[in-house]
Design brief:
By secondary structure, the protein is mainly alpha-helical. It is 63% helix and 3% strand. Helix 2 runs antiparallel to helix 3 and helix 3 packs antiparallel against helix 4.
Length: 129
């Protein structure tokens, strides 16, 4: 069987599998790829989100960096949600749910940063009685 699979001609030949040999395509996932513009938005959204979070964490222009973080999180999460895996594997569905939850967490973190910088609900919640 192995001799037929690797096209061995002599009985004393050794089996060598080279790294550039064709691999079976049975285990590859089918995924809807993003187009070029969506890929750029996805990459820039992630970079902008990290920059905004870093600036906010190191107390560098927090009123601006919180908006940068939120804009990056929205761009990153929206492009991440556009990527679809076309196979109904349980592990991939679970991974998609985790990624969606993380995306909502990024957006929620950006909103909490804005709330911390500007204290939006404070005037409404703590009015003088």
């Amino acid at each position: 069987m192995a001799r037929e699979r690797y096209f061995m001609k002599a009985d004393d030949e050794d089996i060598f599998v080279l790294s550039d040999d064709e691999q079976s395509t049975e285990n590859t996932l089918k995924m809807k790829q993003l187009n070029k513009l969506e890929s750029v938005i996805y990459l820039l959204g992630g970079i902008i989100m990290v920059i905004g979070a870093g600036f906010y964490a190191f107390l560098f222009i927090q009123p601006v960096s919180c908006w940068i973080m939120l804009a990056g999180a929205v761009a990153f999460t929206s492009m991440q949600s556009r990527q679809r895996y076309l196979e109904p594997l349980f592990s991939i569905r679970r991974l998609r749910k985790i990624m969606s939850l993380a995306g909502w967490g990024f957006i929620l973190a950006g909103l909490f940063m804005i709330e911390d910088s500007f204290s939006f609900p404070s005037p409404i919640l703590y009015r003088d009685q």
